[in-house]
Amino acid sequence: MKIATYNVNGVNGRLPVLLRWLEESAPDVACLQELKAPQEKFPLEAIEAAGYQAIWLGQKSWNGVAILSRHDIQEATRGLPGDDDDLQSRYLEAVIKGIHICCLYLPNGNPAPGPKFDYKLAWFKRLLSHAQTHVKTDVPVVITGDFNVMPTELDVYKPERWVDDALFRPETRQAFHELVAQGWTDALRKLYPGETIYTFWDYFRNAYGRNAGLRIDHFLLNAALEPRLKAGGVDKNVRGWEKTSDHAPVWIEISED
Q1: Residue 195, annotated ligand binder?
Q2: What are φ and ψ of residue 46, in 5° steps?
Q3: What's the pTM?
Q4: Annotated catalytic residue, options 28, 146, 155, 217
């Protein structure tokens, strides 16, 4: 079973790129972030024509998450618990073939310090609380998406340039490490412990051409799922396509139970 995550940076504007990637990569499940589309503008017809069922949580102009599946999909949670006043569309859960799949788009947090950074850390705190309910269960669980965190210096090109950025500040990395310490496995780091892996390249300064990237899209597996991890990688070539997202799709393969 192939599970992917992809920050599409606008699901309608980049729909041809998304559909081409779905056809070429053929993931069983694709978690999408940054739809930038209200609920009623999600391109369901095109997604279904590509062979996928979908659930999604839209928001006008900003944010938005979706889970696409070639298999039956059962929605489990809509929105991250812990703050009924939070109206940003950033979190969605579904059960697919017995696997509990959590799709997130964690806040960017810039400029930091400031209100946006405070919101990022508060959102992270809610995620820590909610993730704790999943990590010890016998049900296989994956948390995936755009975390907007580079966990270590290995995950960022020229880390000295990012010390004051919300994606790399000590508070952000500490929150991610606290999350992993609950008992989650960082899937790509398990597979490639010492390799330079990036999932995002800015549009500016020829970042993709220079491979000046960041690893901010992650897969976290609980103990019930981690033994089934077979493979994983980044479809880096997709970042080089015309009118593409600044993220590349990331994927893992899970063995059948």
Answers
A1: no
A2: -70, -35
A3: 0.98
A4: 146
153 is in an annotated binding site: no
DSSP track, 49-98: HTT-EEEEE--SSS--EEEEESS--EEEEES-TT-TT-----EEEEEETT
- The answer to whether 12 is annotated as binding is no
Residue 148, marked binder: yes
Query: Is 85 assigned a catalytic role?
Result: no
User: Which of the residues 105, 157, 198, 208 is marked catalytic?
Assistant: 105
> What is the chain's pLDDT, residue by residue, as a tens digit (257 residues)?
999 999 999 999 999 999 999 999 999 999 999 999 999 999 999 999 999 999 999 999 999 999 999 999 999 999 999 999 999 999 999 999 999 999 999 999 999 999 999 999 999 999 999 999 999 999 999 999 999 999 999 999 999 999 999 999 999 999 999 999 999 999 999 999 999 999 999 999 999 999 999 999 999 999 999 999 999 999 999 999 999 999 999 999 999 97
Domains of the chain: 2-254 (3.60.10.10)
Report in angstroms the alpha-carbon separations of 149 from 9, 90, 200, 218.
17, 15, 11, 9
Q: What is the C-alpha to C-alpha distance for residues 97 and 257, in angstroms, rounded to an integer?
A: 10
Binding residue per annotation — 146?
yes
CA atoms within 13 A on the CB side of 57: 23
Q: Quick check: is 28 catalytic?
A: no
User: Is 177 labeled as catalytic in the residue annotation?
Assistant: no
Type and span of the H or E element at 254: strand 250-254
- Out of 100, 130, 218, 247, the active site residue is 247
